[in-house]
Specification:
Length: 455
């Protein structure tokens, strides 16, 4: 059945979204369906950045993110509107440890802000207040110019002004959280007509915390994980290990940084070297992957330079200051991560989305739940395990969790001796948090947008 040509606005605020939407083929599938795509991005005038995605139906326009009136107050009450274990964590600490909340604010927040979640209709009310005092009409002219049929907001935070314009012009809106941890941190300023999420876990959070109905939510899987299912850019073990400078004959541990000022993560790598030198573990490669989304994260591992058997992987760390998240937007970055995960025998991290990346590649994961000596409470690893989404992963039993040095050593022994194995727990993790690992999530996302635009 032929439909009149449709126009879809797509927001692109972060560098990681170039990977999620452009490199996965989401936007290309829309374009090939004769949909006119207007991409709204702060980097609208960077021709080099988008040159390889050029298409007659693709138009690049400015995305303006304005400073909102009463922003700090609104963020505070919107956090109270979804109060949960994650928000409680944020009242006491911060996700990356850099901006420690003032202790004096804790009691007033618990007394005055946290109870807002019990006030009937409060989510609707505070969103209405935000719309009235912050109409964010910077993009209204684009709606008059292009008359879109649908607006797809791809990050849920920071670029919701486009959704406000869409509501004024009566245009169908679709929102999508950028990651699995977005739904429980804050109330989204705008409730879209439809919400697209990765998984059943996120769907449950959207209903419980963001006020969506089940029929308003579409589950597609994780578009950027399609690279793993398809094994895009996968090299031989020998070729890849030669590139990063490690021995392909040895087992390999991949340590993935959590990013930011989380804790002394170099300590956990040093422990592995101690296990090897004491004879408790076989001689093993250790590949350390700094977080590409945090500037100078490699500096947190600087004392490991020159340590026997340890390689700090800087192969694809071409950080960009074009986007706030400093993301390397190259396809080489994507392929390097695919190879790092597939050729590793085990992935170690404190706790992060990398759990899912590794699981999608069939690589076992060890999470760390103990501190180095002298760690302050502000930098305690254990605190992260009280966050709702982290606890849900640990409750799945799909990863090994080490709560002390001996458990860490035992977990490494077990995994390195046993090899890669698919268990009911790992499949349950995929079902609950990834939905499907079949390489078709980008296709499902694009098809959902097309269907919404034409009906």
């Amino acid at each position: 059945m032929a439909y009149p040509r449709k126009t879809i606005f797509v927001t692109l605020l972060r560098g990681a979204l170039i990977r999620n939407l452009l490199r996965t083929g989401v936007v290309r599938r829309l374009l090939d369906a004769d949909v006119r795509v207007v991409l709204l991005t702060p980097n609208f005038n960077d021709e080099e950045l988008f040159k390889e995605f050029a298409h007659p139906n693709l138009i690049i326009e400015p995305l303006r993110v304005s400073k909102k009136r009463f922003q700090r107050f609104l963020e505070e009450v919107m956090r109270g509107a979804v109060f949960n274990r994650t928000v409680h964590f944020l009242y006491r600490y911060s996700i990356d440890g850099r901006h420690h909340p003032k202790r004096a604010f804790y009691a007033p927040r618990m007394l005055l802000v946290a109870p807002l979640r019990f006030v009937p209709g409060f989510k609707y009310f505070i969103r209405w207040v935000d719309l009235k005092i912050n109409p964010e009409n910077e993009h209204d002219y684009l709606f008059r110019k292009y008359k879109p049929d649908l607006v797809f907001n791809s990050a849920s935070r920071g670029d919701q002004g486009v959704l406000k314009s869409a509501q004024r012009f009566g245009v169908l809106t679709v929102d999508m959280p950028k990651s699995w941890d977005n739904l429980s941190k804050n109330l989204f300023n705008v409730k879209a007509d439809r919400l697209i999420v990765w998984s059943p876990f996120m769907k449950g959070q959207a209903i419980r915390l963001q006020g969506y109905k089940a029929e308003e939510i579409i589950v597609t899987g994780v578009p950027q994980f399609d690279f793993y299912a398809r094994k895009d850019g996968l090299q031989s073990r020998e070729e890849f290990f030669k590139k990063v400078g490690i021995d392909p004959r040895k087992k390999t541990i991949l340590y993935t940084s959590s990013g930011g000022d989380v804790c002394d993560e170099a300590y956990f790598v040093e422990l592995v070297r101690e296990f090897i030198e004491s004879g408790d573990l076989p001689d093993t490669n250790i590949l350390v992957r700094p977080h590409v989304g945090y500037k100078n994260d490699v500096g947190r591992f600087s004392r490991l330079r020159g340590v026997k058997g340890v390689v700090i992987d800087m192969t694809d760390k071409q950080q960009s200051d074009k986007f706030k998240d400093n993301w390397d937007t190259s396809v080489g970055h994507v392929y390097h991560l695919v190879n790092s995960l597939y050729h590793a025998d085990v992935v170690i991290n404190v706790t992060s989305t990398m759990i899912f990346d590794a699981t999608a590649c069939g690589t076992p994961v060890i999470n760390l739940r103990f501190d180095s000596s002298g760690s302050s409470k502000r930098h305690s690893v254990a605190r992260y395990y009280g966050i709702d989404y982290v606890k849900a992963v640990q409750d799945s039993g799909a990863t090994l969790v080490a709560t002390n040095q001996d458990e860490y050593k035992d977990a490494l022994r077990l995994v390195l001796a046993g090899g890669k194995k698919q268990t009911p727990a790992t499949q349950n993790l995929i079902d609950k948090f990834l939905f499907k690992n079949d390489g078709k999530s980008a296709e499902r996302l694009a098809d959902a947008l097309i269907k919404l635009a034409v009906t």
